[in-house]
Amino acid sequence: MRNLVKILVIVSLVVSFSSAKKVYKLKMATTWGPTLSPLFDAAVNMAKMAEEMSNGELKIRIDAANKHKAPFGVLDMVKGGQYDLGHSASYYWKGKDIATLPFTSMPFGLTAPEQYAWFYYGGGLELMQKVYARHNLYSYPGGSTGVQMGGWFRKEINSVDDLNGIKMRIPGFAGEIMAKLGVQVTNIAPGELYTALERNNIDALEWVGPSMDINMGFHKVAPYYYTGWHEPASEMHFMVNKKVFDKLPKHLQAILENSMKLAAYNMYAQNYDMNATAWKKMKEEYPSIQVKTFPKEVMDAMKKANKELREELSAKSPELKEVLDSQDEYIKKVREWTKMSDYLYIKDNI
């Protein structure tokens, strides 16, 4: 009898051990600090959903930029295996691979709804995987800020001549466009931006939109707030080490992909609400803020500079040209519907 009990105990232990689910523990690095909402929130929400939907089989630890100390090194860290996943923005890697640039946003390009449609139904996601495959990574949309504002200016811009010689913080591709129009483009650490603007060390700056601008306080010292042109759909990105992803069971791959997809859309909705809330507060507390649109002369000059730069870069990178051509073709199709639906609805109901 005792032997039978021992056998039953052993069998029970073996069955329990064999039926125990393996837990996959992954590490994710973000470009953002832990207080930068809604960007950091997207990473947190994704990890939480992946763990819940997998019933604990997937556990993702998130290291914010203040922990790993390399906010713009996320691609290299995920590529090299130091981290399994990353959350950042594709245009940060244009110096390493210019073809990654359009997957975040391009001046005068797709809006957020248009870009999501391009990603999932217009071949954009396939092109993104093709580009990131060179880095042994998979990449997925990771949340959009939508249209980013054109910046805070201390003086009104009425002509291209008004741009000539002003000092402005505006990084990346948009900065190159502004430089062609005579702007003295500078890059200043985020923590120093308000002081630089307040003390007239710079004349203007671009940040994001009301949701993130409000905490920086730019509206307190610069009265002109210009509408966007340079980042109409700034999409963040999840990156996954290819070897790590391929080793996951199929059901966990699906859970991870769907968690990223849902977290991306949630961030877009969250940021939209944050923009509306922040702008209401700004208007109430600083009614002197003037929302401006750049004059046609300035917009035409920006578009001309944008076209010239795109042609220069495309001539050097067939991969970039392929992505830009795909976006251009999709705009031809989708923009007519955007005009008919959103634009005319809003125009007729103002």
How would you characterize this protein structure?
With 350 residues, the chain is of the alpha/beta class. Helices cover 50% and strands 14% of the residues. Helix 2 (39-53) runs antiparallel to helix 11 and helix 12 (296-316) runs antiparallel to helix 13 (318-347). The chain is globular and about 65 Å long. 39% of the residues are buried. Residues 7-19 have low confidence and may be disordered. Keywords: Metal-binding, Signal.
Features:
D-Maltodextrin-Binding Protein, domain 2; 13 helices; globular; 2 domains; single chain; alpha/beta
> In which order are the strands of the major sheet placed?
7-6-8-5-9-11
Q: Can you tell me the CATH topology of the largest domain?
A: D-Maltodextrin-Binding Protein, domain 2
Quote the average pLDDT: 94
Low-confidence stretches: 7-19
Radius of gyration: 23 Å
Question: Structural class of the secondary structure composition?
Answer: alpha/beta
Organism: Arcobacter arenosus
GO molecular function: metal ion binding
Binding site for substrate: 148, 169, 206, 231
Protein name: ABC transporter substrate-binding protein
Please provide a brief summary of the model.
This protein has 350 residues and is of the alpha/beta class. The protein has two domains: 20-144 and 232-274, Bacterial extracellular solute-binding protein, family 7 (D-Maltodextrin-Binding Protein, domain 2, 3-Layer(aba) Sandwich), CATH 3.40.190; 151-230 and 288-315, Periplasmic binding protein-like II (D-Maltodextrin-Binding Protein, domain 2).
